[in-house]
Design goal:
Helices cover 39% and strands 20% of the residues. With 281 residues, it is α/β, with parallel strands linked by helices. It has two domains: 182 residues, HAD superfamily/HAD-like (Rossmann fold), CATH 3.40.50.1000; 77 residues, Trehalose-6-phosphate phosphatase related protein, domain 2 (Alpha-Beta Plaits). The strands form two sheets. It has an eight-stranded mixed β-sheet, with helices on both faces. Strands 6-7-9-8 form a four-stranded antiparallel β-sheet, with helices on one face. The longest helix is centred in the middle third of the chain and has 20 residues.
Length: 281
């Protein structure tokens, strides 16, 4: 495990590439993990530095399993790009974009929730309807291991669940349409669209592993240098640590890292981004 603050020189070299993009997960990365999704709040310091960086970098984006409107509301910075529902939704400013295929699956998700609700009525389990996806949370369960097995057994027995992708999260399971869209494809799309030459991705959960892999793929296939930085906590998946180039210890470290990035941005020759830095294609 390579601690990011012990490797600032190579990170600095990537920061100097232009155009440069910063992509960050939300929960567990710039917002401490909360008992329920509704209780989570983005760190004021993270928001402060992201706001400053958004006026200096070609791209600052937040990517989350939450619906895009919820991500936008949580972060609250107009100049950022927001990716919601694991890449299924996208927004900039007040505009949202949804792939055509996702509209059909909102009905499937609602049917799935209707089926699962009476089967998963144990204490500490909640099912969150996120439109084109859903998440089963069990963080508040008094017996999380038993609850996890119950959820998995229920999903394995469900015909509807077999038509969806089931992706593990921290004390949760995500139900997604069976498309190839994920945080990795969303990250690769941003790298291409903004013609990024340098970039950093910050993430802490299972679904961020796809984005880490996208950063590494882009390094091999494009004129791009990027880093995947894992945000470590007691719940961090071991595979995420394996895929990370460097690590930071929790949201507090992210605050310090964004401060360091901001100080470098203000001192560097990074130009203010034009109105639209995206590639024409």
């Amino acid at each position: 495990m390579s601690y990011a603050f012990n490797h600032l020189k190579p990170i600095q070299e990537i920061l100097e590439r232009v155009p440069f993009g910063l992509i960050t997960d939300v929960d567990g990365t710039i917002s401490k993990t909360a008992p329920t999704p509704q209780q989570a709040r983005v760190s004021p310091l993270c928001r402060h530095y992201l706001l400053k960086l958004s006026s200096h970098l070609a791209l600052v984006a937040a990517i989350s399993g939450r619906p895009v409107n919820q991500v936008r509301k949580m972060v609250g910075i107009d100049n950022m790009v927001y990716i919601g529902n694991h890449g299924m939704e996208r927004g900039r400013g007040v505009k949202n974009e949804f792939p055509d295929i996702t509209h059909d699956y909102s009905r499937v998700i609602k049917s799935m929730i209707k089926e699962l609700t009476p089967l998963l009525s144990s204490e500490g389990i909640s099912i969150e309807d996120k439109g084109v996806t859903a998440t089963i949370h069990y963080r508040l369960s008094p017996e999380p291991q038993l609850t996890e097995r119950k959820i998995l057994n229920t999903l394995n027995a469900s015909t509807r669940a077999k038509s969806l992708r089931v992706i593990r999260g921290k004390m949760s399971f995500n139900l997604l349409p069976p498309t190839e869209t994920d945080k990795g494809t969303a990250t690769m799309d941003l790298i291409r669209e903004y013609n990024l030459q340098g970039g950093i991705y910050l993430g802490d959960d299972y679904t961020d592993i796809d984005a880490f892999k996208a950063i590494h793929t882009a390094r091999h296939n494009r004129n791009f240098q990027g880093l995947a930085i894992g945000i470590i906590s007691s719940e961090t998946p071991e595979k995420l640590v394996t895929e990370a180039d460097f690590t930071l210890n929790g949201v507090g470290d992210v605050e310090h890292f964004l401060k360091w990035m901001t100080e470098n941005a203000l001192q560097s020759s990074w130009p203010h981004p034009p109105t639209d830095t995206r590639a024409n294609d």
